[in-house]
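Per your request, structure below.
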């Protein structure tokens, strides 16, 4: 396949559908390219030479029922587009698998940069880096301030028992990829279960909120939050805990995990927590638990990748070093939880 006709994207069928559903939107033949990144779903940039859009679809060869995923992503950005939360404008949802072989949706293309490494941020300089990260906190406050009922998302998740279900879900994920001894991981999981906090009022939760899942414009403002595949209604402090975790510098050369926290000017976790607390009005006294939970989740995710690597099921470079990170994440989780207990 040529770069203009990437796998999983039939541009002629897509052009026909857009012509029928949105007459006048597309002015000429479409070209497309795969955008790298994203946890599982595929993202393409398409253009008619004048305007640009983005297509999101499930992975190729995905045999599970996936209409739900695309429908949920499209639903949440459609709901949030009517608020002040920056999301791309939704264009179309297609559940007819005849078009691309799977359900998909189309949204506007937003110009901006997803910063993933400290080196990328360093080019901004310390002051602009600080502003960008503080904007990340402020935008999260905006998201969590949205009343789910008022935007039609009252049934978008099951907030009751959210943390308990999350902990059990990630415990099952861990069991599914066990292939070596991991000191401390069962202790961390058990301690998280024993110290389960009481959740605040539910909010729309992104589920993977970090600097490289937003687009930052030339004015250092957040133009769009991307990758809503893990979004739901639940405990908003899970988003804060993940953001705090990613704000703790990890000293690992060529890390496969985001290294933005090491950039000059990046605010310390304590400042981000304080800013969120002041602007949201939420009690963040249990933030250590949520941060430890984020370390646990990432440890499980990385162990799953490591397990697939040992089975020869990963493609690309860098997977051979993922396994080395897992014990570091477990240790950070245990330490963070212990510090939170001492503070409490």
């Amino acid at each position: 396949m040529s770069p203009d006709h990437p796998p999983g994207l039939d541009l002629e069928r897509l052009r026909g559908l857009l012509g029928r559903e949105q007459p006048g939107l597309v002015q000429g033949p479409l070209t497309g390219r795969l955008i790298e990144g994203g946890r599982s779903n595929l993202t393409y940039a398409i253009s008619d030479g004048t305007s640009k859009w983005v297509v999101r679809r499930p992975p190729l060869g995905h045999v599970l029922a996936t209409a739900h995923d695309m429908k949920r992503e499209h639903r949440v950005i459609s709901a949030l587009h009517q608020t002040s939360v920056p999301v791309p404008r939704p264009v179309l949802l297609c559940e007819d698998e005849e078009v691309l072989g799977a359900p998909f949706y189309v949204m506007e293309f937003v110009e901006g940069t997803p910063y993933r490494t400290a080196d990328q941020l360093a080019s901004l300089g310390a002051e602009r880096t600080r502003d960008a990260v503080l904007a990340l906190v402020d935008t999260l406050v905006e998201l969590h301030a949205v009343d789910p009922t008022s935007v039609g998302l009252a049934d978008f998740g099951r907030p009751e028992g959210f943390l308990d279900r999350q902990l059990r879900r990630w415990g099952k994920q861990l069991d599914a990829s066990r292939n070596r001894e991991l000191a401390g991981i069962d202790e961390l999981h058990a301690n998280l279960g024993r110290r389960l906090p009481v959740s605040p009022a539910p909010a729309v939760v992104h589920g993977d909120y970090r600097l490289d899942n937003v687009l930052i414009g030339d004015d250092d403002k957040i133009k769009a939050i991307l990758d809503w595949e893990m979004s739901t209604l639940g405990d908003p402090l899970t988003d804060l805990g993940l953001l705090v975790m990613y704000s703790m510098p990890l000293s690992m050369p060529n890390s496969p995990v985001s290294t933005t926290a090491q950039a000059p000017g990046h605010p310390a976790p304590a400042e981000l927590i304080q800013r969120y607390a002041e602007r949201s009005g939420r009690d963040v006294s249990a933030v250590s638990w949520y941060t430890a939970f984020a370390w646990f989740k990432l440890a499980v995710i990385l162990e799953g990748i490591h397990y697939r690597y040992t089975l020869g099921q990963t493609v690309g470079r860098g997977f051979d070093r993922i396994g080395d990170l897992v014990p570091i994440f477990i240790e950070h989780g245990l330490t963070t939880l212990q510090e939170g207990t001492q503070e409490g």
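Strands lie at 31-35, 42-47, 52-57, 90-94, 104-108, 203-205, 214-216, 222-225, 232-234.

Regards,
D.
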